[in-house]
Design brief:
Elements lengths: L9 E5 L5 H9 L9 H9 L3 E9 L2 E12 L3 E5 L10 E4 L5 H17 L5 E5 L5 E3 L9 H6 L2 E3 L2 E5 L5 H7 L2 H12 L3 E4 L6 H19 L9 H11 L4 E9 L5 E11 L3 E9 L8 H15 L4 E3 L13 E4 L2 E5 L7 H19 L1
Parallel strand pairs: 4-6, 13-14
Antiparallel strand pairs: 1-2, 2-3, 3-4, 3-5, 6-16, 7-15, 8-16, 9-14, 9-15, 10-11, 11-12, 12-13
Helix pairs in contact: 2-8, 6-9, 7-8
């Protein structure tokens, strides 16, 4: 839009029924990713989340959509994305490219519209398009435009691997230990077994969940709800085959019996891919299957023309993949200033709930 976004007046409409044309438009949109697909929506609906879809129009022409979830917790809350589902980002999905400035203006008008129409009391948004990237993590990292616009936010840090490079460039940029263990694993006969048939998903998830349980036991945590076996099954079946990558690292013992050393799940789309879950058995970690697993994920996603890989946090071991730091702010809008602390408070209560569920399951 050529008109200054400060002068623009946007129109909004809640869509109760999403037809195939809307999903097709979202899939082809400029900044679409797997979190705006019908497959991901199916996953969230299966988890019992209540979606909210709002069309965004300018001069009576639809220019994009807002996707999120709604819930009632004593107050009306809209979250894009819903915490605990593995949905890393959501919010606006624009049909054509717009500036970050226009994007924020739409958010301000949208949230005001939702408050005025009593559709929400508190709104939380983590939008992949409103991010900043750096080679190094600075202690005082702020989003300049959000600060200027007076939008309340909490920094969320992660690593991104840019897949626009060639495979050779990606390989050469990895830490030498990654390359060494990948080469050693292949030389020793470790097999990468990709899931390319839907009938193999259940057995893969059975094994993957065992890896996750072993990892969570070592870390003395119950993990996230999205890591539960039934939720992993829903995810894998919902996203198969076009938005999910699943594979194991397989070896054989001295008797020729197969051993599954590690496994992972990546969800992917055209502008963003995400490391959903990955784990290995502790007893086989001296074989370094995770290094082979992560490199193969990069290689396979690059092969599929997927978007930049969001590694989901800034754990030290992920640095070996030569990522860049990204700050994806969690923006919050509320009717009352006191509610701006809801994001931090809810995360604490959520962590306590997960720990409690882990003890009683």
């Amino acid at each position: 839009m050529s008109q200054d976004s400060k002068q623009a007046k946007y129109q909004f409409c809640i869509i109760e029924h999403i037809d195939s044309d809307v999903w097709e438009t979202l899939e082809k949109a400029e900044d679409s990713n797997m979190f705006f697909t019908q497959e991901w929506d199916k996953y969230l609906v299966e988890l019992g989340k209540k979606r909210i879809v709002i069309s965004v129009s300018f001069e009576d022409k639809t220019i994009g959509y807002f996707i999120g979830s709604k819930l009632w917790a004593g107050i009306k809350i809209i979250m894009a994305p819903f915490m605990g589902t593995g949905t890393y980002t959501q919010g606006l999905c624009m049909i054509e490219s717009i500036s970050e400035y226009e994007r924020l203006e739409i958010y301000k008008q949208l949230t005001s519209w939702l408050f005025e129409n009593k559709k929400a009391d508190y709104i939380q948004i983590c939008d992949f398009q409103i991010r900043e990237e750096k080679k190094e993590l600075t202690q005082d990292w702020h989003h300049t435009l959000l600060d200027k616009e007076g939008i309340h936010y909490t920094p969320r840090y992660t690593f991104l691997v840019d897949l626009k490079h060639t495979e050779e460039e990606l390989w050469n940029s990895c830490h030498h230990n990654i390359r060494r263990y990948v080469n050693r694993g292949k030389k020793e006969g470790l097999e990468i077994r990709n899931v390319d048939r839907e009938e193999d998903i259940d057995s893969f998830v059975d094994q993957h969940y065992k890896h996750i349980q072993d990892m969570l036991h070592r870390k003395e945590t119950a993990g996230l709800l999205c890591q539960r076996k039934k939720n992993l099954l829903v995810l894998c079946h919902s996203l198969f085959p076009s938005h999910i990558l699943m594979f194991q690292i397989i070896d054989k013992d001295e008797n020729g019996n197969e051993l599954s050393l590690s496994s992972c799940i990546f969800a992917y789309g055209k502008t963003q891919s995400t490391f959903f879950t990955g784990a290995s058995f502790h007893e086989y970690m001296n074989r370094h299957p995770n290094e082979l697993m992560m490199w193969e994920a990069i290689r396979l996603l690059h092969e599929r023309n997927a978007g930049a890989i969001n590694l989901g946090g800034i754990a030290e071991y992920k640095k070996k993949l030569a990522p860049t730091y990204a700050m994806i702010p969690v923006m919050t809008f509320s009717k009352y200033k006191i509610m701006h602390s809801f994001y931090t408070t809810s995360k604490k209560y959520y962590a306590k709930l997960i720990t409690l569920l882990g003890h009683i399951r």
